[in-house]
Structures are given as C-alpha cells and as structure tokens.
Design a protein that fits this description.
This protein is α+β, with helices and mostly antiparallel strands. The chain has helices at residues 56-61, 67-97, 105-114; strands spanning 5-11, 14-20, 23-27, 32-36, 41-47, 50-54, 133-137, 140-146, 151-155, 160-164, 167-174, 177-183. This is YviE.
Amino acid sequence: MRIPQIQMESRQAKIAIQTVPARQLIQQPKADVRMEQPQAELKMRTTPGKLTIDQSQAWEEMNLKSTFKAVKENAVKGNQKVLEGIARVAQEGDEMIEIQNGQNAFVEQAKRHATPPMPDVNITWIPSPFAVKTHYQPGRVDIQFQPRKPRIDVAIQKPIIHYSPGDVQIQLAQRNQLKIDLVK
C-alpha cells in the first residue's frame, strides 16, 4: 500500500531594483583679486663732511709767509737788531773809556769783529712733523622711511553646484508561490 505523500513546491518572491545614481557637479570660479602696492616713502637728508686743513705753520716754517706777517716779523727783528747794535756800541764805548787802566780795547774789539760767531745754518724748507693741522667733521645721513601697506581687494565667488537627485525604483518581479499537492 502506498502511503499518501504531500508534495510541496514553492517559488520565492523576486524584487527588481532599478537605480538612477545621483549626480553632483561643483564648479568653483576663481576669486577676483586686485592687489596694489603703493611705493614706500623715503626721505634722505645728508650733511656733507667737512675737512679743514691748516698748513699756515708749515708755510711759516719753510719761510713762505704771507706778506703782512713777513713785514711784521722783519720789523720786530730789525728793531731788536737796532737795540742790540746800540748796546754793542755802548759796550765798546765803555771798553774804550777803560783804556786808561791799561787795557787795549782796540785790539780786543778788532779780534771780535774779525772772527764773528758762526751763523746758525739749518734746513728751512722742510717743515716740522705735524706742522699741517687737519680737522675732519664727519657728515651725517638722516634717513626716514615710511612703509606703505599693500591694498588687497578680494571678491569671493560662490561655488556653482548642480545636483540631480538619484532614484530607486523597486518592483515585484516575481510573486512568491506555494503549491501543495497530495500524491496518493
């Protein structure tokens, strides 16, 4: 004998999914930038240096004096020599008065006049060291600098965004089914 059997047949449901992807497009325009750099302000003042050279002492030591100074010095020397001459003549006169004491004043005076003292001879055309005086006053430089800040103007551009939303469509492609049979 046969035992009846139950036979089952099933079919699962199937879903169909269709998607349209979302699309996004972003553009960023460049910013408008304007830059300007004003020139810095620079002011300079200079005071020139000053060099003073005094060589009058060197010229005098080389006997190259100014006319007025040479005349003045020669007048003083001449006056001094006249006084020395008067003193010498007076001394010689006093010596002649003493002739009565047995001195031979004429012979002594003749010897002195015959052999005068040697004159001082020296090189006069070379000035002494440091006869030329120099003085230097340094110059000055005054610099005033005024910096200028740059001017920057920026116009920012907003981004351009295009967005297309996506879509998902879901459908039932196949229904589920269950078939039960009794087989004898």
